[in-house]
Design brief:
CATH architecture of the largest domain: 3-Layer(aba) Sandwich
Number of helices: 9
CATH superfamily of the largest domain: NAD(P)-binding Rossmann-like Domain
Strand order of the largest sheet: 3-2-1-4-5-7-11
CATH topology of the largest domain: Rossmann fold
Number of domains: 2
Number of strands: 14
Largest sheet: 7 strands, parallel
Distance between the termini: 42 Å
Structural class: alpha/beta
């Protein structure tokens, strides 16, 4: 029996990974700080309340479950604050302890979530084995450091491992202060959506596709860093403009009304050759289809918040 410990199970990617893991025949041990009912049902789904930053707590959990697989999403991710928060250091410590305990309990395969912030953004087009790593934030540096240790740990212990470098995600359940949901919420409420100039080129992937890629990666023996992205460049102006047209209020979008971040690269897109060639994986959701589902989810969510049935 394949037994996976899924951290961040109620988070943005984790919640979408649950049904996919069950479909693959995994016995899923979902981890969260608070006791919550799982978002899906299944005889092989078990929910665990655990603070992974409490090393005694996490050690007890791993020793009891003895998972064969680890899918580790949990991290500090409060919008804007996470870039240079000292919480990143605490999550390096917790993640290292988790890996050591997982390996010592007979764990066979670990897949962890990385970030495009590990790369040198001046290169623009990011290839796993080519583009140098030069993180410009504590978040990026922390993830990069953890990936380096994971790679060496795998060589030392024989642990099979992979590292999914996430680029730009969007979809149901994203924090409302992130770009896509903040624009959607403003437009649905009839308010101005204040944006930068929008000329930045980015690589967006629907969150359900990201979950699918990670689950696929977990169920293989591919090693090392793998970009988790669409590989398709799109400007922020194009994507946000489409949302305005789709919701029938393009006049509410104000490009250039807020400054772009000084650290924003003009172009940041992933090579997805490893995903396609080695994993034989491609995204299911085109950008507009994913955005339509995201808008629909936010409409329902806002109606619930307002008590509308």
């Amino acid at each position: 029996m394949k037994k996976v410990l899924l951290t961040g199970a109620s988070g943005f990617i984790g919640r979408h990974s649950l049904p996919l893991l069950l479909e693959r025949g995994f016995e899923v041990h979902a981890v969260g700080r608070a006791q919550r009912p799982p978002v899906v049902e299944g005889d092989l789904l078990f929910w665990h309340q655990c603070d992974l930053l409490d090393l005694n707590d996490q050690n007890t959990l791993v020793s009891r479950v003895k998972p064969t697989h680890l899918l580790h999403f949990a991290w500090y991710a409060l919008p804007k604050a996470y870039w240079d928060s000292l919480e990143n250091i605490r999550w390096i410590q917790a993640s290292l302890e988790l890996l050591l305990r997982f390996s010592s309990q007979g764990g066979r395969r670990a897949v962890l979530a990385g970030t495009c912030a590990e790369y040198d953004w001046t290169h623009g087009y990011c290839i796993e084995s080519v583009t140098p790593e030069k993180p410009s934030s504590l978040y990026g540096a922390s993830k990069s450091s953890l990936q380096t240790i994971l790679r060496q740990l795998s060589k030392t212990t024989g642990l099979s491992s992979a590292w999914g470098r996430i680029f730009h995600l969007y979809g149901p359940g994203e924090h409302p202060e992130r770009l896509v949901p903040s624009v959607i919420i403003s437009l649905l409420n009839g308010k101005l959506a204040h944006c930068s100039h929008g000329e930045q080129i980015r690589d967006f992937l629907f969150v359900k596709d990201a979950a699918s890629a990670f689950v696929e990666l977990l169920d293989t023996d591919i090693q090392g860093a793998v970009n988790v992205a669409s590989g398709k460049p799109v400007s922020l102006k194009e994507m946000i403009g489409w949302l305005g047209d789709y919701l029938g209020c393009p006049e509410l979008i104000e490009f250039g009304s807020i400054p772009a971040r000084a650290s924003d690269p003009p172009f940041l897109v992933a090579s997805v050759d490893r995903l396609a060639r080695e994993l034989h994986w491609r995204p299911e959701y085109a950008l507009h289809r994913g955005l339509e589902q995201t808008v629909s989810w936010w409409k329902q969510s806002l109606q619930k918040d307002c008590g509308v049935t």
